[in-house]
Design a protein that fits this description.
The protein is α+β, with helices and mostly antiparallel strands. It has one domain. The strands form two sheets. It has a five-stranded antiparallel sheet with strand order 1-2-3-4-5, with helices on one face. The longest helix is centred in the first third of the chain and has 50 residues. It is elongated and about 85 Å long. The termini are far apart.
Amino acid sequence: MTMTIAIIGIIAMAAPQIITQTTKVFILGRVKLQLQSEARAAMYLITRELRQAQSNTIVIDQTNGQPYYSRIRFTKSQGANVTLAQSGSSLLLTEGNTNTTLSKNLVFMSFTFPRSDDMTIVSVALTLQQQIYGGNLKALHMASERVRVMN
């Protein structure tokens, strides 16, 4: 009887730690999956819009209070003006008078021309971040993707 009580006591002491660790792993996995999904969707839309840009209309700059190279403006071949910009922790797509929020977990975004002799290639980098547990944060950097402007 004493041995049974001792074994149950040991299991009872270890159970909270096991449950806590399992919960943390589950939350971390869920947040990682959400960030990856959000980053892929945003990168897909950015790529789709950039491919329709007129290369001679592309301007890369920043909005006030935002990091350098965090905004790109261009005119699509159909004539619509498009802006992709970081605004705080949001990634905004503006086409004409329509605003769309692509992400609310943005930490860093950068648009650059990887080659100074070819303004038809734009490199895009995104970093998304979300709180997981205990004030900790999980960040995901979407590898830079080079987009060839088709027009």
